[in-house]
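Supplementary notes for students who missed Thursday's class. We covered one full example, reproduced here. Read the sequence, then the structure, then the short commentary at the end.
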Amino acid sequence: MLLCITRAPIRAIAISVASTSRRTKAILIGHDAYLKPTGKFSAIDIEISDHGFIFSGRINKRTKNSLCACSSRSHAVDMSDPANDGKDLEANKGQELTGEKAPDINSAETGIIQEEVRRAAEIQNAFMPLRKLHEAERWMDRKLGGENYFETQGIDRIPEEAKTPPSIWNALMMWSSVAMHVGNIPLGVLGAEYGLSFNGAMSSATVGIMVGALFTAYTGTLGPKLGLRQIATSRYSFGFWGAKLCSVLNVVIGGGFAVVNAVVVGQILSAVSDYHMSIVVGVVIIAVISFILSVFGFRLIHSFEKYAWIAAFVLFVVLYAQGAPHAPPLDTPGTEKGIELSGAWLSFFALLFSSVSGWCSMAADYYCNYPKDTSKIKIFSLTWIGLVVPTCFTTYLGIVLGQAATLNAYPPYADAYNNHGLGGLLLEVWHPEGWSKFALVISVFTVCGNNIAINYSSGLSLQLLGDYFHAIPRFIWSFLFALVVAVLAIAGREHLSTIVSNFVSMLGYWTVSFTIILLIEDYVFRRGVDYNLKAWDKPDELPVGLAAVFSLIAGYCGGGVPGMAQVWYIGPIAAKFGGAGGDVGIFLSGVITLLVYPVTRYLERKYTGR
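Structure (token representation):
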């Protein structure tokens, strides 16, 4: 085996290596390495865009020198003899062609060898279907210019010299597109269904959104510092195995949001066709579009999200202007009174809190390409503003339409909403008919900004479940995720309000515990800097994770369950508010996690040393 390491990134260097054995194989370590057999295994073409490679097979001295000539600053170690089993790697580490000291191959700065990447690469090369899928990824990326437009990065940590940061303002624009979409309108409509007045719904939504966005804004700051995806950052508190639980929960969260969006799109397209087209068709259309856009990855998502919010903003301004005249006066009372009104206010707060805090397990996915010295304050502030402003804007619109259709019971709006759901309501509000149908079609694409981000992050989370999951390309996981979302959306297409009210608010119980655990770990136990970045994929060097997992479960079961207020279950504490209860699970989950994690983590560090 020959190990060739370069000190600096190299771009698109093609090397042809003669092979004397049909058993020749390559394990490619680094970013965007490409392996393509040519002929009858007579040669291997290796294209490297970053850092280095490992080539194993029968290699003579001449070939070795040719390989290492690929960079003026490279380091070669001969590992061809199986008896060595890699033992001469350390002995030869200092033998660099330039005469300079070779870099540490496990260096966090070079990022050349990552254990999890190596294990996944071995699995890929052992199974032809996986190898072909990855070859297809590389081929697509090269066809698009070879600049990672078709992202093949996966969950691998991004070292500093390999980062390709977009503008810092993308941190604002991206979330504007993610949050400003027609799928947020049903959240506001539920304010009237909870029995809240216009003022009550507005105040509850505003506070819930502003507080929930704090959680997502904080977790996003870990991306530039660690160069890791969000769930991968949780390994420094949940451990290698505990983070897998977070991966599963993250996929469930993303799936829930995506199902809501898909049903909304189905209702809208059905309304455009004058209800001749089934909701199912719209669900399938948005699933396909979201999948196709999500597979291109980080660069396309940032480019798309930078501008996608503009169309939504224009459409929604018109919707405000046409729908607001039929809303009830601001001082119109709601249907709930006394303690039950407090319960309704808290439940609506929980719903909106969860709708923005749900991104806390994905935020760093979109910041890991920013340099580690990127201002935390900028990332935090731009993320918070980018979530709060558009979410409030669309939720307020939903509140206005909900009040007009239910509390004020304006007949055309009430009939359209009761008979055809949100799609029928929007068709009635936008007028005249030609403009209405045009606006509905365009509004469908506003959902894409939200769904492609969900598809992208969910695919990454699934790769974190294990080496075999990692070996499968992200675009395959994104496809399977989109397929499952479509099936669930089709099954629940007639129950949008139930899905929204029951599912979304339940997300907050885990997101608040997740964020508090990461916050305490970062500022209390690691003082913001004590991260061994070489250990991100090494189970034996990461925390055991029992403290974090126990605290998460304690917060959810000890606080979330007794404090939840759902249609199918009202916890004993939530029931104290009477009627439909008052959802206080978020507060209880947060308090319990805040009390439990510092103690259990202290004990874990004391007895395990990590």
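Commentary. Residues 2-115 form one domain. The chain has two domains: 2-115, 160-328+349-608. If anything here is unclear, bring it to office hours.
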